[in-house]
Prior knowledge:
Distance between the termini: 47 Å
Structural class: mainly alpha
Amino acid sequence: xxxxxxxxxxxxxxxxxxxxxxxxxxxxxxxxxxxxxxxxxxxxxxxxxxxxxxxxxxxxxxxxxxxxxxxxxxxxxxxxxxxxxxxxxxxxxxxxxxxxxxxxxxxxxxxxxxxxxxxxxxxxxxxxxxxxxxxxxxxxxxxxxxxxxxxxxxxxxxxxxxxxxxxxxxxxxxxxxxxxxxxxxxxxxxxxxxxxxxxxxxxxxxxxxxxxxxxxxxxxxxxxxxxxxxxxxxxxxxxxxxxxxxxxxxxxxxxxxxxxxxxxxxxxxxxxxxxxxxxxxxxxxxxxxxxxxxxxxxxxxxxxxxxxxxxxxxxxxxxxxxxxxxx
Length: 327
């Protein structure tokens, strides 16, 4: 194979390029087999490819969210700096993930996608944070135009969204355009920034109190992690055989999962049903919690958890968020 960084020949399967020393992202998917209690779980190579690329993207997303948090805490001090600078902070880190995704595309033999095409495609489809930004813009406009205390709805805005998802029926369905956010990201929007400077101090404080970094980071991280779905969709469009989440899979696994939890479900069939869930749509944190609860933290169950990258199950996955309803 060819090193995507220096163009020199590299032995298939190498982890690093011997010429330039770069870490290589060549992924060779295979069927994967796991055993629990003597029963076999088979992961097809299409899902193995998705899962391998997913781990790389999630690693890049973890780095990106730390960069976002660092820059946010250093640069964002009030509503005006939020509106002016946060789109660039967000976009800077998303750009780093885009470059990582392009490396992975090249490693999989896809050479005709540009940075701008991939970046814009993802931004149009997965933009939870962009919609929060647009909501802040809307709230600023309400204060300025009416000059009354209009905080009741906005006060509960961030907490409400903790259970909110992309609401996408399938991965090709776009979100409503986040107009103000995109304009600010591209350096075009200035009027709303000028308006925010005219807010009364109490109004500034009321809005900014809702823009707490830990809450915002949840939505930013979802946008960053969802890049794996964009990447997988591009690969599939180029003829690469790769698993990709869809609504039918999600509905089927949810139905099976609810049946498993029914006290009347036959105990001897429970593990087989669990495996059917993992083979169709495994990226739900609750499945892994219940796998441990039902079958214990054995070497077998932990091997499955490690394979899917679910050791730290603190928040919902991007795959879950795709099919969560919009509020």
